[in-house]
Amino acid sequence: MNGIEDGVALISGASSGIGRATAKRFAADGSSVVVADIDADGGEETVSQIEGEGGEATFVETDVTDEDDVATAVETAVDTYGGLDFAFNNAGIEGEQVSFADQGNENWERVLDINLGGVFYAMREEIPVMLESGGGAIVNTASIAGILGFPNLSPYVASKHGVVGLTRSAAVEFSADGLRVNAVLPGVIDTPMVQRSSEEDPDSMEQTIAAIPADRLGEPEEIAAAVVWLCSDDASYVTGQPLTVDGGYSVQ
Ligand code: NAD
Questions:
Q1: Which domain holds residue 47?
Q2: 252 lies in a domain?
């Protein structure tokens, strides 16, 4: 018993990759899950995988940049499952990978709006609902790009540094109210996001793996385990932390 059983979790970006693996892990550990994503087919597939394993989940089509959609996702957790205990604000995009001077305004605005705005809008809706029931736990997906620089990814890197800042601010503001807020910082994880860039440039994947001390990509389930731990009672005194899960990438 670590508090995850019988909880209610809202997970964005849960139609794929890290979000889907985390939705499945929350459900396997006993939480009811609201699967929120812009991709309806993937979201329904996540729900059906959870139900197939005996878990409880509902899909809500959600664009994390749309405040009304985000409010609807939070309301769905309350109306369907009676409250909101955990939120994993995880939806994100890599954006265009081009040099700094070639980054267009459109890419800048889109990456910042989804990766950083999406986390801000979500927390603004989630926090009051959690406080009403005495607290909860939020995890936001940043990245090792939230503490390190990477070439050709300046909007992504800026957005993920911003997620770390939002996380720390909310953690300090609500620590005395029973609400913990942490960030998970994945390294290079084997999801469709990474598979897309490796298809574009297969050589770059070999170089990337060579730079990872663990000598392999991470699995989405390894991020899910960290997120569920951060939300559990086992992490009851952990808040405001950027937790890297990266096979040693960021510490060499
Ligand atoms: P993914 O592409 O497999 O999944 C991302 C999900 O986000 C998709 O289901 C997509 O539909 C959803 N999404 C995109 N825009 C959305 C929007 N506007 N509203 C709602 N949903 C939207 O990628 P992933 O690797 O699972 O990435 C999940 C998160 O992890 C992202 O925030 C990403 O930046 C972060 N991350 C990934 C890695 C990695 O190596 N895979 C590393 C560090 C951080």
A1: 8-188+219-244
A2: no
Query: Does the C-beta of 46 come closer than 6 Å to ligand 1?
Result: no
C-alpha to C-alpha distance for 156 and 81, rounded to whole angstroms: 34
In angstroms, rounded to a whole number, what is the distance separating the alpha carbons of residues 35 and 57?
7
CA of 15 to the centre of ligand 1 (A): 9
Please report the ipTM that was assigned to this predicted complex: 0.99
Q: Please indicate, yes or no, if residue 195 is contained in any of the structural domains.
A: no
Q: Which pLDDT score is estimated for 219?
A: 98
> What type of residue sits at position 4?
I
Q: How far is the CA of 176 from the centre of ligand 1 (A)?
A: 31
Rg (CA), the chain: 17
CATH number of the domain bearing residue 36: 3.40.50.720
Contact status, residue 240 vs residue 168, Cβ threshold 8 Å: yes
Kindly state if the Cβ of 63 falls inside 6 Å of ligand 1: yes
Write the DSSP string, 138-170: EEEE--GGGTS--TT-HHHHHHHHHHHHHHHHH
121 catalytic residue (yes or no): no
Q: Answer yes or no: is the C-beta of 192 below 6 A from any ligand 1 atom.
A: yes
For a pocket test of ligand 1, which of 191, 205, 223, 250 has the largest count of ligand atoms closer than 8 A to its C-beta? 191
Domains held by the chain: number? 1
Check pocket membership of 19 for ligand 1, CB cut-off 6 A: yes
pLDDT, tens only, 181-212: 999 999 999 999 999 888 878 788 999 999 99
